[in-house]
Amino acid sequence: MLGPLSRGHEIVFLHVNRDLIEAGGDLGNAYAFHHDKLDIDVLFLEWRWAIDGRNTTPCGIKGHICDLHRQTKLPT
Predict the structure, then answer these.
(1) What is the pLDDT at residue 24?
(2) What is the rounded distance in angstroms from the CA atom of residue 45 to the CA atom of residue 11?
(3) How much is the pLDDT for 46?
(4) Is 55 exposed, middle or buried (CB count within 10 Å of its CB: 0-12, 13-18, 19+)?
(5) Spatial distance between the Cα atoms of 66 and 46, rounded to a whole number of angstroms
(6) Beta partners for 13?
(7) Residue 66's CB: how many other CB atoms inside 10 A?
(8) Residue 33 half-sphere exposure, CB side, CA atoms within 13 Å?
(9) How far is CA 74 from CA 1, 62, 68, in A?
């Protein structure tokens, strides 16, 4: 990812900071989050895998993030 950054591009996640909101994980200012419309040059999609203790536990448990649940609800 250094190539795009070194050319002046910015990487922005197109959602709220779920790690902070849902699991209390503060990543500092390592990433930018934006949930409104943006002028986008490239869209990179990420597939979520099951991660024990993060997204394989029941909702509401400390450290749980619903990213895998949201992904599996997407229409195919």
Answers:
(1) 82
(2) 12
(3) 75
(4) buried
(5) 15
(6) 33
(7) 14
(8) 12
(9) 27, 25, 10
Q: What is the pLDDT along the chain (76 residues), one digit of tens a residue?
A: 567 778 887 777 777 787 788 878 787 777 777 767 777 777 777 777 888 877 888 888 888 888 887 777 766 6
- Amino acid identity of residue 19, one-letter, is D
Q: Which two tokens stand for residue 12?
A: 């922005």
Q: What does the DSSP 8-state code read for residue 12?
A: E
Strand 12-13 to strand 32-33: parallel, antiparallel, or no bridges (unpaired)? parallel
* Structure-token match 């099951």, residue found: 50
Task: Read off the pTM.
Answer: 0.40
Residue with tokens 């649940």: 69
CA distance 57 to 68: 10
